[in-house]
Amino acid sequence: MATASPDLSALVADPYSTYARLREAGPVHRVTGPDGLPVWIVTRYADVRQLLADPRLSLDKAHRLPGNYPGFTLPPALDLNLLNMDPPDHTRIRHLVTKAFTPGRVEEMRPGIQALADQLLDGVAGRGRADLVAEFAAPLPITVICDLLGVPHDSRLDFRAWTDALVAPDPSNPGAAKKAVAAMLTYFPQLIADKRRVPGDDLLTDLIDVRDDGDKLTEDELTSLAFLILVAGYENTVQLIGTAVLALLDHPVQLAALRDNPAKIDDAVEEFARYDGPALLAIRRFPTEDVEVCGVTIPAGETVMLSLASANRDPDRFPGPDRLDLARREGGHLALGHGIHYCVGAPLARLETQIAVSSLLRRFPALELDVPRDQLRWRPSMRARGLIALPVRF
């Protein structure tokens, strides 16, 4: 089924209405992407979930036919990561990563994350107002991920700027993304060399040392993994914290219910992720053979985008999908993926969001927006869903 391209400004300002129209019109649409190249968009929950785990849809760009959207392109030293590979390489590297990135390590981080959240809130408490993105939601995960990787303190502001430039490029500064890539290509190999010389109690040192029957990560694999962990670990969490807080401010009854019963925060975070998750679309995929979806044939080598945002608002899976419901019984959202490419950092993103939202509600019982709702600005991206700023008073 071919359709007119969804307008980028509409996808930024109101993606859920736009995807609802696509979903109602049909399960699969061939559209023109922002770069002028064709893309297939899949919109319904059952199809998106199935295709996320379908081995015929490859993440390896070697399967892309020329003339189709390639996705984000990076130099090999940054591109050789889990978002661009299939088994057996994906299986090998993910297994090595998960040996170091365990739930136990994440849980050990809880006291430190809580102390950091409290410290950040201490810094704004006396003013009675703050931008929760710049002063809370962003510094929390960038500090956590840099602590996890063992990044020195004097590099951390650079990391945040590099990540922002890559994920949501500023149209007025077109060279920022290239500069960020060049900076990372210089920085990460040096950081890895430093860790080899002076090992630390951090994930990057673990990744350097991890072995499995003699197998270990190559230099490019190490560099790419450090890059991926930084970008994904920071970007997804900062956006999820911001949209979670906004969702509560938009739904005061739900906010009051969570404040009265803070033990429900784990379930609440799952609903925040379903309701307004950080990724509108999963990473692009390329069929290794023709794939049929609801009677529509997607040819091998063309680009497929699976809409996580649309799937998570599909009324066939989630009754009343446009309503935030912290007591929702239907689980199984796809905000963090599904199948072998499920987000390896999901436990950390959940923990940080749980701590951030709980701490904020406990500290500031009179929290409210400090600007009219329609003045909030969103990042100019059809892939990453996030607020530029979230001004509040308390």
Can you give a write-up of this model?
With 394 residues, this protein is mainly α. The chain has a single domain (8-393), classed as Cytochrome p450 (Orthogonal Bundle). Helices cover 50% and strands 8% of the residues. The protein contains 17 helices and ten strands. The chain has helices at 8-13, 15-25, 45-52, 76-79, 89-100, 103-108, 110-125, 132-137, 139-149, 156-167, 176-197, 203-209, 219-250, 252-260, 265-276, 308-311, 346-363; strands at residues 28-32, 38-42, 57-58, 129-131, 286-287, 291-293, 296-298, 304-306, 368-369, 391-393. The strands form four sheets. A three-stranded mixed sheet has the order 1-2-8, covered by helices on one side. The protein has a three-stranded antiparallel sheet with strand order 4-10-9. Strands 3-5 form a two-stranded antiparallel ribbon. Strand 1 and strand 2 (38-42) form a beta hairpin. Helix 7 (110-125) runs parallel beside helix 17, helix 10 crosses helix 11 and helix 13 packs parallel to helix 17 (346-363). It is globular, with a radius of gyration of 21 Å.
